[in-house]
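User: Structure please.
Assistant: Input sequence and predicted structure:
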Amino acid sequence: MPSLAAFVAGLLAAVLLWNGLFGLRGDTDEEFDIAHLVRWEFGALANKWLFAAGEPLRDDPPAEEAIAAWFALGDRSGEEGRRLENVVESAIEGRIDAAIREHGISFPLPLPGALEVWPPLDIELTPSPHVLVISPRTEIRRQDERILQFDLGIEELYRIEREAEEQDGSIAAFVAPTGGIAFYPAIVDARSYRGAVGTAAHEWVHHYLAFYPLGRAYFAGGDAQTINETVASLAGWELRDAVLERFGDPTPPASFAPAPASAIDRSAVLRELRLEVDALLEQGRVEEAERRMEEVRLMLADHGISIRRINQAYFAWYGTYAARADAVDPLGDQLRELRARAGSLARFLELVRGITSRAEVEALLAGTEATPG
């Protein structure tokens, strides 16, 4: 249940820290500025408190029924969507909370009862914002980010990128979609129940890590950022799978036809391209690297694989998630191996939450023997 403790956790772990990460300045109409964020935070938290306070007076549907009905809605902004949304959010929070407890993940303070899981689970099912990612043209690096509004059309995305690059010819810009943002409550895009559970768990891991060196070092970028996102991916997937195994998925299988199989491996092509681009940039062949990225993007499109734009900022953004199938950073495999050796998810998080560098990951691997299964 939302509480004062949840509110404090939100202010400490999300508003201030994530504001520092994403630079919520509000310089343009498309940006998600700090005033907007504060209004959203208070509105979302107040709504949850009112929902919790009114629970004894309502006849809410069972969680399974509410989840199935809400995810089946075409328009969730209507009366039925609003009626069910808080029930669905509460159900997802409770199920992930149960998975966290089952895995023995706890805060190193004697927190009682409902606060044993810290920070408390708190999500808001709503369309997730875009992020404007800036990278130098001469290397692949997340130099800056700005959170944008979620309801931007395709032409607006191109315009924002073009204007950023025209303003500074030394940078590459890419507007990335997001599945969630670790504000508090966490923004979780809800295209599917499975996806919502996975994203909610991922964002909770960010909230958890924000109280430790790894989470706090996120804002310095570099290795800590990649470790943080990769740990959140690995732990989030594991918690998601635990929820689905215990509670099932009350929504029907997706009815849309699967995309036709491609003759090429998207992930393999992108891995090869990333390595090629890195080599070209190291040699100072910036324009050649940019031409090559566009050539490969068009080749993928010819094979039915649509990627709106591939540039240095694209690779800087997605390269941070080293657990992805198209990642080239060895941190992905190293952290997977560390998770396997740790024996439990709780132990894995205890090992990684105090580190901030690639060298420390390697040292942990060197000093950690596999735990007998």
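The chain has a mean pLDDT of 86.
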